[in-house]
Amino acid sequence: MKVKIHTLFQYLLETTDAAPEAIVGFSLSGSPVLGDYLDDLDPNQSLDWNGRDFRGLPELRDHVLAQAGLNGICTPQDVLITAGAAEANYLAIMQLLQPGDEIVIETPGWPQAEVLAKAIGATVVKVTRRETDNWHLPLDRVADAVTDRTKMIFITNPNNPTGDLLTADEMRALVRVADKVGAWLLVDEVYAGLEWDGPRAPSVAGMYARGITTGSVSKALGLQGLRTGWLICPDPELVMDAVILRENSSEIMNIMGEVIAEVALRPDRYAASMDKARSEGAANLAQMNAWVDAQNGLSWVPPRAGLIGLAHLPDGIDSDAFAKVLLGEPYRTFLLPGSAYDQPNHIRLGVGGGASVNLGKGLDRVAQALRDWSKT
Ligand SMILES: Cc1ncc(COP(=O)(O)O)c(C=O)c1O
Predict the structure, then answer these.
(1) Claim to verify: residue 248 and residue 283 sit in the same structural domain
(2) Which end is more exposed in the chain, N or C (fewer Cβ atoms within 10 Å of the end residue's Cβ)?
(3) Any ligand 1 atom below 6 A from CB of 106
(4) If the chain, 376 residues long, is cut into consecutive pieces of 10 residues, what is the mean pLDDT of each piece?
C-alpha cells in the first residue's frame, strides 16, 4: 500500500513558500492564542500522557458527547480522541476497508477517503453533487450507488467544499440506505456548529449501529494546531480497532492537545466561542455574498453551513491558471483552485481566518485579477 498525493495537497505543497498578502478561502474561524487559555491551565500539569484512558481524557470525551448532542445516546466509551478529524477518518477507513471492497463517496468532497481507499485497493464509487441542485447530495443516487460489496459510505456534513447541509430527515434516509446493505456510514462533521440555514444535523453515531461520527476543534473553534479531534461510534469493536491502529502509529494523544481542547469545550466557554464564531462568520459571509454579486460573470451558491463555498468562474477561466496568476505580483493573494476538487471552472471562496488573512484586501485583488483577466 502506497498513499499517493492528491491534487489538493499538491497545490498546498507547491504554494507554501508563496507568502501571500491575503488569503481568500480559509475554512476555519480565526485562531485563538495560547494566552487565551493560560488562566485555565495548571502549571503543574504533567507532560506525561493522560495515564487514564487510551481513548482520551474522560472529561474531554464527556464534552465531545455534549457538543454533538449525544448525551444519554452514546457513552464516553464510544468516543476516541484522535489527532484531528483527519486521524479519526484514517483509523476508521484503514481498519474497515479491505482490497476489493466498495466505498461510496461524494464529489466534490474532502479527498481523504478516496486517497486512502485507492491505497488499500478498494473500489471508489462517486456520487456527484451538482451545482444545478445547489450542490445538494442526491440521496437517490447514493441509493443507486450502493451494492452488496459496499463497505462504507463516506460523506462530509456540512460538506467541504460547498457548505451544503443535510437535514435530520435526510440523515435518517441515508442511514436506511447504508443499513440496507449493512454498510458503515461515516459522516465527517468537522464543519458542524456553523449552520446558517436550519439546525445542526444529528450525529450519525447516535442513529445507527454502524454510524461513525468524526469531528474536531479545528474549524468553528479555530484550534486546528492542537490536532485534537474525535471518532464516535456505538460499535465497541470498531473503537478498539481504531485504538489498536493508533497504538501502532502515534500510540497516544498529545496531552496539551487534550488539556486545551478540554478547556475549549467546557460548556460555558464553548457556547461563548460558538456565539463569536457565528456572528463573525455571518457578517463575513454577508460581505462575501455582496462581493460575489458585484463581480461580472462570477456566481456562487452561498454555504448553508461553514465558512467556505465554491464559486463558478466566468466562462473561459481555468481555475488553476487563475489561482497561480493571483498568487503572483501584483495580486499576492491565495485561494484554492476548484481543480483540487475536480471542478476546474470553480474557485473555493471562504471567509475564515480572522484578521490575519486580510479578507477585504484579498477580495479587492481577486476582483482586480478578474477585471484584468477579462482584458487579456
Ligand atoms: C472535511 C474535512 N475533514 C477533516 C479535515 C481535517 O480536519 P482536522 O484538522 O480536524 O484533522 C478537514 C480539513 O480541512 C476537512 O475539510
Answers:
(1) no
(2) C
(3) no
(4) 93 93 95 97 97 98 98 98 98 98 98 98 98 98 98 98 98 98 98 95 98 98 98 98 97 97 98 97 96 96 98 95 96 96 96 94 97 89
